[in-house]
Amino acid sequence: MKSYNKYRLDNGLEVILSPNTHLHSVSISVGFNYGLFNESNSTTGVSHLIEHMLFEGTGKFDKKTLKDFLDNQTVYWNGETAAEITSYRFKLLSLSKPQYVFDIISDMLFNSVFPEDSLTKEKNAVVNEVQSNFGGDFSLEGAIPRAYLLRKPTTTFFGGDPKKIEALSKDTILSLYSNYYSPGNAVMTIAGNFNSKKTIESINESFGGIRKETITPDLNIYTGRVKYKSVRIKSFNPYPGQSSIVFGMKIPGAEELYKISAKGRASLDYIHSILADRLMESLRDKSGLVYLADSDIDINRHAGYLVAYAKTKSKDLEESKNLLFNEIEKIINGDVDNKNSIRSNISLKASLADTFDSTLDHSIEMLDSSLKYGKDINQLYDEAINLTLDDVRAAAANYLKTEGQDNSILVISS
């Protein structure tokens, strides 16, 4: 497995380095413990807006300077707002001028000024992004279970409520940015071809002088038990006779999973993979009832959910629904064999190989490992690779739900 160099600056910033001189790029990811689940219902979308605004100018570097850096020094850059993390990614062909690179990134993250003209423009961009997400497959049907299980507004899962984003005042945005964008709430990861000694020296120079109080953001989601609910909605599919089935299950977040079992998180990843394969086999390959059946999992530090879904003809709705729940029931009852486990293990190892070969993926995985799970990336892969069938069966019995059980919701659109 890979070895990592880990540092913590005096101001609390955690830095994880993974050098590899055989690669031809270097990627830098920085993540903050602040995301969609930390927003109040009145500020839903603010973390998404802050993410956009950090590329719009700082106290030292105007927007043109930042644009020149991003266009000419990086081959990829982006920000992403997730449930409990907002992250920023930069991929470069080399880190030959580390001080220049880290001076700009540091100022972007901790000294952005939020110009009024940019704020108006980016509010519009974020609203357009949120609204465009409503048109995707399983978008609304998939957001309803997540919103119900965690008692968040449905729009949260698209990046925020357009009306509330437009109404956000600059003072509110700056207050939240000032409170939660601190070194003590952040992790930086770097993977690829770079000199560790020069890199950590430059990071110390650029980031070490930033002194801000670390304020832990509130968690504004529901973590208790919810009663089962069944919802029917009118489909917005333009073709008549098309139906969607989405079944959401609430699962614990990483902190709770690790308290219960060191293998619980990895087991749920396996279950998600097995369930996705079994749904496609049963509903698509054997019966031809659907074009697509799949599952989606999201395990964050404090909350998680697993969603199974299928899109079918309305006349086949009941049969498709029954087959979906039959597959879940079988897995709950221990119907998981070595074939299922081997396929999941191969998929995991292939994912691991891809992660190490791509500096960007590697830096992101290192970041998620630390912020989501508080673990070394090696620990996470060891847990998954060393799972037994009994571990997977135990987790399935503990966490999977069937229709009518608490901590679940069924949404059908037709």
Write a concise synopsis of the structure shown.
The chain has 414 residues and is of the alpha+beta class. The chain has helices at residues 46-53, 63-73, 98-110, 116-133, 139-150, 162-167, 170-180, 196-207, 254-260, 264-286, 317-332, 338-357, 359-373, 377-385, 389-399, and strands spanning 5-8, 14-19, 26-32, 76-81, 86-92, 186-192, 229-233, 242-252, 290-299, 303-313, 408-413.
CATH architecture of the largest domain: 2-Layer Sandwich
Q: Helix/strand/pairing class, anyone?
A: alpha+beta
Q: What is the ordering of alpha helices and beta strands?
A: EEEHHEEHHHHHEHEEHHEEHHHHHE
Structurally, how many domains make up the residues?
A: 2
Beta strands, count: 11
Descriptive account of the structure:
This protein is of the alpha+beta class and 414 residues long. The protein has helices at residues 46-53, 63-73, 98-110, 116-133, 139-150, 162-167, 170-180, 196-207, 254-260, 264-286, 317-332, 338-357, 359-373, 377-385, 389-399; strands spanning 5-8, 14-19, 26-32, 76-81, 86-92, 186-192, 229-233, 242-252, 290-299, 303-313, 408-413. It has a six-stranded mixed sheet with strand order 1-2-6-3-5-4, with helices on both faces. The protein has a five-stranded mixed sheet with strand order 7-11-8-10-9, sandwiched between helices. Strand 4 and strand 5 (86-92) form a beta hairpin. Helix 10 runs antiparallel to helix 11 (317-332). It is globular.
